[in-house]
Amino acid sequence: MKLIIKHTILTSSITLFTFLFSFNCYIPYPRKSDSNSNGDNTSSNFMFVYSLLLVNQSNANYCPKPTQILRKNVNYPITLTFGEPYYFHYTYLDNAKPQEETRTYLLKITKQSGTNVTYKENTYCNSASSRFYTVTPTSAIATEQTYDLLYSNTFRQSWQIPNLYSVEVSSGDPNITLRQE
Questions:
Q1: CATH number at residue 127
Q2: Does residue 63 lie within any of the structural domains?
Q3: How far apart are alpha carbons 174 and 172 in whole angstroms?
Q4: Among 91, 92, 126, 136, which residue has the least CB neighbours within 10 Å?
């Protein structure tokens, strides 16, 4: 947990430094020679580059967009394609809780016996070095895999999502059901 907080603070600091450095060194300042016929001396090039920089800094996300946002206690039957990940996220609203309360959060994957499904998470989508890590199930039987979900990383408001989750089938029946409890 401390590693994630340190990584987030470091990433935020680097992003701020990069923005300030870019703003001061690379963006052209308006000059008197840039004035147009209306007497406006702001460069259209300056405004375009500045706008582009702001858009790119605020939307830095290196993960693909989720196909599905899972609601709590709802079954999501999906058909996977072999070798292709299915990306999803969990909704924040169904999982909000008071700070002092302790709850158990689970993801259940229901599948046919003999089907191999891999669950992965990526908690560093706001980093260029983002990648998915395979999660080991908390419990598994032939037709169901259960995973514990960590509240602090998993459930965030949509504008704060630095993470993404995926499931992928490698063999067996590609029809599975996802359920977050």
A1: 2.60.120
A2: no
A3: 6
A4: 136
Specify the long-range contacts of residues 74-80, CB closer than 8 Å, at least 24 apart. 74/179, 74/180, 75/177, 75/178, 75/179, 76/177, 76/178, 76/179, 77/175, 77/176, 77/177, 78/175, 78/176, 78/177, 78/178, 79/174, 79/175, 80/117, 80/167, 80/168, 80/169, 80/174, 80/175, 80/176
Per-residue pLDDT tens listing for the chain (181 residues): 454 555 556 666 666 656 665 555 545 555 555 555 555 544 555 555 555 555 555 446 678 888 998 999 999 999 999 989 999 988 877 777 666 666 778 999 999 999 999 999 887 777 777 788 999 999 999 999 999 987 655 555 555 556 789 999 999 999 999 999 9
Q: Provide the residue range defining the domain that includes 50.
A: 2-58
* Residue 33 sits in the same domain as residue 112: no
Residue 37 CB contacts under 8 Å (≥ 6 apart), including other chains: none
Helix axes 44-58, 2-25, angle to 10 degrees: 180
48 and 95 in a single domain? The answer is: no
Q: How many CB atoms lie within 10 A of CB 39?
A: 6
Cα dihedral 69, 73, 78, 83 in deg (nearest 10): 70
Both tokens of residue 164? 């993404």
Q: Work out how many domains the chain is built from and give that number.
A: 2
